[in-house]
């Protein structure tokens, strides 16, 4: 989760408006084949936009809990911005910009919705 103050300052620095879609971060290729692909691409983009920060993937925050991993963590000046991702897809089986993309239909099942709540709780516990 990025706090509102942190989110607004990130948006201002890059002339992004709150609520803009992923296309504003990835104008050349906004389709990802998996959550891991999205995670890596987002981390890479964050590092491009903010070279002064450290970006970690699957990060275990301090000595919190050895079983807990955060998808992406931004570290700067001993402060941490944890980001948890969910990448649910619609069925897509086409070529996009020369690459064959095949995505499954991961419709919003009731049980999958709890994953979002668990991620929120995890981030709240850490913070």
In short:
This protein has 3 helices and 5 strands; from the N terminus they run ααβββββα. With about 130 residues, it is of the alpha+beta class.
Structure description:
It is built from three helices and five strands, in the order H-H-E-E-E-E-E-H. It has helices at 4-13, 35-49, 110-126; strands at 54-59, 70-76, 79-83, 92-96, 99-103. The strands form two sheets. It has a three-stranded antiparallel sheet with strand order 1-2-3, with helices on one face. Strands 4-5 form a two-stranded antiparallel sheet. A hairpin with a 2-residue loop joins strand 2 (70-76) and strand 3 (79-83).
The pLDDT mean sits at 77
Question: Which range best describes the helical content: under 10%, 10-25%, 25-40%, 40-55%, 55-70% or over 70%?
Answer: 25-40%
Uncertain parts: 1-19
Note the overall shape.
flat
For the termini, the CA-CA separation is: 10 Å
Q: Helical element count? A: 3
Radius of gyration: 16 Å
Which sequence of SSEs, written as H and E, runs from N to C? HHEEEEEH
Number of strands: 5
In percent terms, what proportion of residues is strand?
Answer: 15-25%
What does the largest sheet look like? 3 strands, antiparallel
How would you classify the helix and strand content by structural class? alpha+beta
In the sheet with the most strands, the strands line up as: 1-2-3
